[in-house]
Amino acid sequence: QVQLVESGGGLVQAGGSLRLSCAASGRTFSMGWFRQAPGKEREFVAVISGSGGRTYSADSVKGRFTISRDNAKNTVYLQMNSLKPEDTAVYYCAAKTHGPDVVLSPAAYDYWGQGTQVTVSS
Fold first, then answer.
1. Checking DSSP bridges between strand 43-48 and strand 10-13, what pairing results, if any?
2. CA 91 from chain center: how many Å?
3. Listing from the earlier edge strand, what are the strands of the sheet with 18-24?
4. Which stretches does DSSP call E strand in 25-87?
């Protein structure tokens, strides 16, 4: 089984940056970031393949957010730059322990972190 430990959330001003981290305790394939704002559905943000060779990001964050992973540390990161108030949400790390790789649907993920709050002020 996989346990996920998230960190890096906080309060920042618009235009600022944060880096989220998610450490996994076991072997994973693809890992992804999702977010959920109050009263809204959970939405896809970015995903990375098990090898780190493939990534895919939502249109709303392309050019601003970058997903990466360090397999030696079994950790995935989300570098968030040029943050906007509409990025405010609880951000969740998720992991898949079996294929297929690079899946965007949250229903396909086996394990989830507890979520970390990101708040971007105007």
1. unpaired
2. 6
3. 4-7, 18-24, 75-80, 65-70
4. 31-36, 43-48, 55-57, 65-70, 75-80
Residue for token pair 């704002």? 37
CA torsion through residues 5, 87, 17, 32, sign: positive
Output the CA torsion sign for 99, 65, 60, 55.
Answer: negative
Q: For 108, phi and psi rounded to 5 degrees?
A: -85, -10
Phi, psi dihedrals of residue 121, rounded to the nearest 5°: -90, 155
pLDDT in tens, 68-99: 999 888 899 999 999 999 999 999 999 998 88
> pLDDT tens across 5-49, in order?
999 999 999 999 999 999 999 777 899 999 999 999 999 999 999
